[in-house]
Structures are given as C-alpha cells and as structure tokens.
Write a structure and sequence with these properties.
Family: Belongs to the beta-class carbonic anhydrase family.
Number of helices: 14
Bound molecules: zinc ion
Radius of gyration: 25 Å
EC number: 4.2.1.1
Oligomer: single chain
Structural class: alpha/beta
CATH topology of the largest domain: Beta-carbonic Anhydrase, Chain A
Pfam families: Pro_CA (PF00484)
Keywords: Lyase, Metal-binding, Zinc
Largest sheet: 6 strands, mixed
Number of domains: 2
Helix content: 40-55%
Strand content: 5-15%
Strand order of the largest sheet: 2-1-3-4-5-6
Order of helices and strands: HHHHHHHEHEHEHHHHHEEE
Catalytic activity: hydrogencarbonate + H(+) = CO2 + H2O
Length: 311
C-alpha cells in the first residue's frame, strides 16, 4: 500500500512569518492592520496571505483577495483541497498558540512551584466546589484566581444545579464527589451577565415539541423564569434576563439542599453555600450566602445574607 506523501510545512506559522516568533493570537495581526488602515493589499496582501497557515488570518486575506481576483481564488481553493487531503489542519495556528502557552506555564509556574505540584500529585483537598457557566468569558480560575488544587469545578450551560429528583447528571456526580469524598467546605454557584443559557430559558416556548438539549437542560431553572416574570415582568427583556441570571443562582442554591448529604452537612455547619454573580460589562462581582436553619425571621428556613460587591 502506497503511503501518503510527507506533508511538508505548507506555510510558516503566523508567529514565524509576521511577528518575530511572538505570540499573535490576541495581537493586532498584520493583515488586519493593513485593512483597518485602508492600505491597498496588492502584492503585500498576497505575501501576508501566503505567509500564514490556514487559520483565521489567512482566511481573512483569502476572502478579501478573492473579491479582487476570482482566478486567484480558484487556485487558492485547489490549494486548500490539496492540503486538506494531506492532513493539513487549518486550525493549527490555534493549537500552536496553546503549545506556546503550555510550555510557558510549565517553565514559569509548574517548574518554579515543583514542591506544590508534587504534593498535588499525591491528592487534592480543595476547599471550594465551584459551579459556573460554560461560557468562554467567565472562567472562574481566571477571574477569582483559583490555583491548581484550590477548587473542584464543574461548568455547564447557565451554571445550573438540577434538583436531586432530576436524577443523574455530570453536575450531580461532581457534587457527590466534591461533598462526600473531597469534603469541600464551600459550594459557590456563579452566574454572569449576558448568559446565553438564561436567555434561552427566558425565550423558550412552553409546550414545544421540538427536541432541544439546551431547552431540556435550562428547563431545570424554569422556576427562576416564573419568579422573574412575576417580579420584574414590566421591565425590558434584557433587564428581565439580568434578574433571572441572579434568580437562577438562588434556584440552584435551593436545589443544592435537595441533596440529602448536602442538606445534612449544611445543617451540621460544615458546608456553606454561596451565590456569586460576575458582571463582565462593568467587571464587578457580587457575592452572597444562603443561610439555612430553623427559627429564622418570618418562620422561613432560608435566608440570603452577607451580600457584598467587589468592584
Ligand atoms: Zn452563561
């Protein structure tokens, strides 16, 4: 059986071609700089287009140049097909960037804190269980500075905790391990601004027959939608969503108490339940705590206390 021809380096990485080897994923890329400045592309644009792998930069060049010279575009499309057949990965720019970041982490974090990582290799004893949204803009480790070993974490659409009766889910499995095996002392549920999952909850049609994993999942928080509509139904849709983003956190906090082993530890005072809300529009963080005990004001067993805003 004949083997595939060796894949030669088709184009140098963006970093090699245009930025003296420096990371470029979040830098202003040369082709975009040219476009923003309204400069003619011509041979300069083609040189840049040919100077990078098939990632977003080269695709931008391709689209722009194709409008000027369709025959050139035709040749380029043939090139794309040929290199896809040879296994050229048009997303390789991004993975190269991750490689650079990983090696930087290894050099400046892992190797400089080797004692700490050797301890972590023996086991973990995080104080926090964090439930956050899968949204790419709200990474808890990034915004709250959790270091390896400090927080057991699960991220899902709209940072929801289903009630115990909901049955098995990856979130309930993570809770069981964090509470019963790791014995975390804090569970923090973090909501956030402009949450797509909450928007889906607020817009989903009742009694729809079409199948949607997202709708099925966010339905876990339908009580938060109902209480939002009752409380602030007169406000704009965006304002209702903001309200529901926080209301759903409280709904999740109450759902945590439906897990018998969580309720037991909260009652014993060895586990605390906290809500959080990260607003990335003005970069602020609200934090509060769910208090659960008998004989509180008004006869309720629940109260939200210790509000604070970090800004
Ligand atoms: Zn979200």
């Amino acid at each position: 059986m004949s083997s595939l021809p060796a894949v030669r380096p088709f184009f140098p990485a963006v970093s090699d071609a245009s930025n003296n080897g420096k990371s470029t994923m979040f830098n202003k890329r040369p082709i975009e700089t040219l476009m923003l400045n309204g400069l003619p592309l011509g041979s300069v644009g083609e040189k840049l287009a040919n100077g990078c792998r098939w990632g977003p930069v080269r695709m931008t060049c391709f689209k722009l140049l194709a409008t000027r010279d369709p025959s050139w575009a035709s040749q380029e499309l043939k090139e794309i097909k040929r290199h896809r057949q040879h296994g050229e990965d048009i997303g390789s720019d991004h993975l190269e960037e991750l490689k650079v970041r990983f090696l930087k982490f290894k050099k400046h974090n892992y190797l400089e804190n080797l004692d700490h990582y050797e301890i972590l290799a023996q086991g973990q004893a995080p104080k926090f269980m964090v439930i956050a949204c899968a949204d790419s803009r709200v990474c808890p480790s990034r915004i709250l500075g959790f270091q390896p070993g400090e927080a057991f974490m699960v991220r899902n659409v709209a940072n929801l905790v289903p009630p115990y009766e909901h049955g098995s889910s990856e979130t309930s499995a993570a809770l069981e391990f964090a509470v019963n095996s790791l014995e975390v002392t804090n569970i923090l549920v973090i909501g956030h601004s402009r949450c797509g999952g909450i928007r889906a909850l607020m817009t989903m049609k009742r009694n729809s027959n079409s199948k949607s994993f997202i709708r099925d999942w966010v339905s876990v928080a339908k009580g938060a939608r109902l209480s939002t509509e009752a409380a602030v139904g007169n406000l704009s849709f965006d304002e209702q969503c903001t309200h529901c983003e926080k209301e759903s956190v409280n709904s999740s906090l109450l759902n945590l108490l439906t897990y018998p082993w969580i309720e037991e530890k909260v009652t014993e005072g060895v586990l605390s339940l906290h809500g959080g809300y990260y607003d990335f529009i003005d970069c602020s963080f609200e934090k509060w705590t769910l208090v659960y005990k008998e004989g509180m004001e008004g006869g309720s067993k629940f109260a939200l206390k210790n509000y604070s805003t970090w800004c």
